[in-house]
Structure formats: C-alpha cells, structure tokens
Amino acid sequence: MSLSTQYSTGAYVKPAAHIKAQSIVEIRFSDNEISEPVAVYPQVGKTGCEVSNGRVNYSGRLICTLIYLDGDGKLCRVQKGAEFSHYADEESLAPAMTAHCALSCERWHVKRDGSSFVVGAVVGAEINVYAPSGRSCLSSAEGASIRRENVAMYSTAPFTGEGEVEDSFDCNAQDVLVPAAEASVTSCTCRAGEIEICGEIYLTVLAVREGSPVCFDRTIPYKCEIPCEESLIVRPAQCAAEIKDLALNARVDEDGGNCRVEFGATLCFSGYYCDSEEISAVTDAFSCTNAVECIRAEETAHVPVGYKNFTQRVSGLCATKAKLDYSCSFLAVTLPRCEYTRTECGIEGSVTAVLLYDKGGEIKSTEVNLPFVWTAEGGGEVKAYACGVSVKQRAEGECEAEATLKISVAECETHNFSYLSDLKEGGELPANRSAVSVYVPSAGDGLWETAKKLRRPPEDIQLSNPELVYPLTGKERIVVFRGKTN
C-alpha cells in the first residue's frame, strides 16, 4: 500500500495559562495629626499588562484612604497613592500571547513606624493568558478507509474594554469620609460589533452626621456596551468587572442638613466568548492491507452559557477583635468585604467589616467576622459580594451580625472534541486467503466498527450484507466474500 494524505489548516485562539501572583505595596502616612487609625480602605486598579518570554509583567496603582482620629477626637481622613509593578513567571509564555489581569487587595494592615503609620497591602493578581495557535486536520487519505463526522471546533475570543457609570442620591450627612465599592457582572452578551455587560455596583459610604459616623449602602445597577468588531452574532460571554477609578463628590445643604452625592466610576472589563465552526472532520481511519497509526488531536473548550444570580441573607454569631460589652455603643458598620473558597456544592467563607463604636466618649473600631456557608447545585465560577452589614449585642460580650450576600455564577459547558491530525503507514498485515469468512459481531457495533474489525471497506460490508441493521445486536452472522487473486 502507498498511503497519500492531504491536510487542511486553520488558526484559532486557546487559553494558554491561568496564573495567580501576589505583591506587597506599602504606603506611608506621616501626618502628625493622626492620633489613632480607625479604618483603612485600599483601592487598587490596573494600569498595564504585557507578555514577554516566560513572564507576564503587570502594573497598577494603589490608592489608600486612612480614617483616623485627630488630637481632638474628631474623625478625619487622608488619602495617598502609590504605583507598583510586578511580574509572574511561566515558561510557556511568549510575546504573541494576550494576557488579562485582574487585581484585588487580598488583605492589609496598619502599623506604626516611629511617628508615621505604614499601610501594607497584599495585592493579588489573577491572570488569564490566551495564545494564537493552529490546527492541522487530516482531510483525505488515499489508500485507506476514512470515517468522517461533523465536529464542532471552538476558538476562544478574548476582549477588554471600559465603561462609565454615574449616579446621584441624597444622604442625611454633613460630610463624606470614604466611599467603598465593588462591581459584579450579572449578564454578558455578545452582539453585532459590541459586548453588552450588565451588573451592579455595591457602594458603601462612611459619612459623618452631627459629629458621629454613619454608614449608607446603595446598589447601583449598570449596563455598559464595549466595542468588539470580531463579535458578529448573539451569544453568551463571560466577563469580570474591576473598578479602575472611583469618584464621589458631595455638596452639603447647610440649611437642610442633607448631602447631595454625585457618584462616578470607570469600570474595566475583561472576558471571552467562544466562536464555533462545524466541519466534516476525519475522526478515524484504517487500511485493509497495512497497519496505520492514527495521530489524534484532543481539545477541550469551556463555552459560556450564561449567569445565575442569587441574593442570600446570612446571620449569626460573629467574632470581634476587640472585647465589647454593654459600655460600648455601636455607631456604624462599614467597609464590608467577602472572603471565601469554592467547594463542591457552593462556597464557604466569612463576611468581614469594620465596626465603629463609642466607649467612654471615644470613638474606637474593631474588625467583625461573620462566617457563612452557601450551597447551590451545578458548577461555574462564583463571585460573592457583601453589603448591608449590621451588628448588635445579643448578650454582653456576644455579638450577632447580619449581611446580604450578592452572588453571581458564570456557567460554562465543557466541550471535548477530537479529530485526526495525521496518519502514518505501518507494516503489511497478514492476508486472509479464505474465499468466504463468517464473523460473529459484538453487540452495539456500527457499520464502521464492523468494517474496521473485518479489514474491509464499509461499502463492501454493506453491499454483501444488505440485510444488516446497525447498531448490531451481536446475534447476526456476517459473510465476507473474497475474490480469487492470482
């Protein structure tokens, strides 16, 4: 046998790496008026990300707001920023690849250093890398029997973009100390030439009213469209939202005692969708006379199918770092955040917030920690956000907290597909010289499996045994006739 093969080629994009990295960023506050730090809110945003040989380089900006008491016991704030750059190594990376990087402040602390205070923040980076690649598919093989099937082949299409969100509202306060916000995605859809992203911003505002701290929570829905020329048809996509810049301007009505708040945020989006193309691909082959080696390509695609969104109220005993008793008067709960880990049936973690309270006429603060477990069927990437946290004393020394969890689940379908990328000819097989052979098939065999076992072209089996109905039951008898050869 002389095997002659032909191939078809094509380009596609595939996920190449998922990398997690950390860096430490410090900001020093040297204000001599700082008597005691009360709360810290770090806000991090990405400024750049690029791939080089074996490395992803990323940079960002950390803006830290420090709430403190001055010498007179008055709540004040000071804000400083710092730029940083870091990298993550991975041997397989190359400059032709594309990287999406999402930054977050995973934890932070405040320490005194002489007359200054230093805020140290651990900045986490979650990086998805996409690589251009090529497919080589066997299209024909003269001298062998081939099996063709319709195979859906997928290519990952990453996208990025920015959107603006604005809102305005009134709050009963005389001054705003710090706004804190997180952005969720509740749906993401490709349309012709654009990506439509819907979600919510969970805003917490720590303010001052009549000299005492108060906290306001607000949920701001948004819808943003970012351009994407490659998007042609309507399909689900998966996306992450990050607050790049946050601005809050407050105008106080001195007569009415109200505060008009103008809110603005720049959101940075990064995500992907999947293009699919169904082709007639060669998925198997054999020769009647020679052994052949089938070189098979196996691929997996995670195709977005949509979002599921949940609201869960959690409550129970909470832990506090400070010892609290009935001499403490609770004032406000602010800066909530959600820390959790994924489990087989949901997530488990804790809601953390800062409790401001009055003790003996002095404002103090402590961290509050409320554990929770959330269960749900199915898989998908889970994002959880905390808002509306409240704390009360159930008994002296025992605190009870309540919080609202906003949970979004980005669901995907996993598609595994394969095809022949090459065919190599082997040695000659021993010939069956019988004029007639009778075979007993296996139950469930189709025409292709039967022909492959008998080393006869499928059309010959069909022609010589037209009464067979596939798949076979295993009770049939298959007759193979061989013509006389000289």
Which structural traits does this protein have?
single chain, 486 residues, mainly beta, Membrane-bound Lytic Murein Transglycosylase D, Chain A, 6-stranded antiparallel sheet, 4-stranded antiparallel sheet
Write structural notes for this entry.
The protein is elongated. Among the domains are: 311-408, no CATH class; 432-486, Membrane-bound Lytic Murein Transglycosylase D, Chain A (Roll), CATH 3.10.350.10. Helix content is 3%, strand content 75%. A 6-stranded antiparallel beta sheet has the order 15-16-17-14-19-18, with no helix packed on it. Strands 10-9-8-11 form a 4-stranded antiparallel beta sheet, with no helix packed on it. The chain has helices at 447-454, 458-464, and strands spanning 4-29, 36-52, 55-69, 75-89, 98-113, 116-142, 145-171, 175-191, 194-209, 212-227, 235-236, 238-252, 259-286, 290-320, 328-343, 346-359, 362-375, 381-395, 398-428, 436-439, 478-481. It contains 2 helices and 21 strands. Helix 1 (447-454) crosses helix 2 (458-464). The two termini are 17 Å apart. The longest helix has 8 residues, at 447-454. The chain has 486 residues and is mostly beta strands.
Approximately how much beta-strand content do the residues carry?
over 45%
Structural class: mainly beta
Sketch the topology as an H/E string, one letter per element: EEEEEEEEEEEEEEEEEEEEHHE
User: In total, how many beta strands?
Assistant: 21
| Global outline | elongated
Would you identify the regions where 5 or more consecutive residues have pLDDT less than 50?
Answer: none
Strands side by side in the biggest sheet: 15-16-17-14-19-18
End-to-end CA span: 17 Å
The major sheet is characterized as: 6 strands, antiparallel
Work out the radius of gyration. 32 Å
> What is the count of helical runs?
2
| Average pLDDT, all residues | 91
Helix content: under 10%
